[in-house]
Amino acid sequence: MLVTRTPHGLYLPAAGLHLDARTAPGTVFVSHAHSDHCTAAERILCTPETAALHEARRGAREAVRLPYGESLGIGEARVTLTPAGHALGSAMIVSESAEGRAAYTGDFKLRANPFSPPAEIPRVDELVMECTFGEPRYRFPPDEELIARLYAFVDAAFAEGAVPVVLAYALGKGQEALWHLVRAGYDVAVHGAIANLCDLHVALGHPFPGPGSWSRYRRAELQVPNARRVLLTTPNTRKAPMVQKLPAKRTCLLTGWALHPGAWNIYKDLDLVLPLSDHADFDELVRTATESGARKVYTVHGLHKFAEHLRSLGIDAEHLADHPQTDELAPTTEPDEGQLGLAL
């Protein structure tokens, strides 16, 4: 195997790199800075953007900053990072050694992301890929359609004199939602956890172009009649006073789990749940496994059923591991939808 497992999780032996390990000796490749992929390791390898985001979330440490497309000799391998399309700085890693080429996708999507170059499907001998939405029910509508439905939701709330509340994770989806909202001309009040990371996006050269504007949430601004401001906040505030004490509100959650058959019951207190996801859907997952040309595909972060489906297509596939972070997160952290599932 070009990719193995250790007590710390997935490992590239030729490069001597642990993959998205919560803690490990030596160097950990961090695919992106969602809290469920961050690490306590003393040394990390990642893109410059992920290094900055990781430092903001987990504190400073030694970081090997490798931009997309540049290769680095490490151990007995050369590694290259390519865009994953999941969030700012998210990357797949490709390791090439005398034994062959291996890649680990981390979380990814092939659809467009305003903060990432298009994701690239690696051509490799062994592929380790996430399969969060690895069931046929998870075929997402085009993003353009979902964004149009988000705009219609906001307009309908304004027409009723209500505050449209949009729930999105603090890193990644929060910035994507804000980018689309201000681009369409809406003014947005942003929860501090999202705003802090928006500030960092701007500092890293990724602004939020208007004609709309955004500012940090101030309670008084949303208490006036016909405020005509969108409140962009995190899912864990949906039952908090900042949302519940609004004089009139309509609430929308952005999550790929909207397509789960139990979503209507789990999210019954919400007005709209849109499957706007920062993960690959079922068809993108199948396409990635197929176009990689890998002689062996290992799946992680999802159900074993996806590996079974790949085998039915003639692909040698094996479910290698569940989500790498199974510990309970601290209350102040914000996981991404791949870890949360329906537990909102």
UniProtKB/TrEMBL annotation:
Coiled-coil intervals, chain numbering: none
GO biological process: double-strand break repair via nonhomologous end joining; interstrand cross-link repair
Keywords linked to the UniProt accession: Ligase
Keyword Ligase: yes
Keyword match Lyase: no
SUPFAM superfamilies linked: Metallo-hydrolase/oxidoreductase
GO molecular function, one term: damaged DNA binding
Protein name, as recorded: DNA ligase I, ATP-dependent Dnl1
UniProt organism field: Gemmatirosa kalamazoonensis
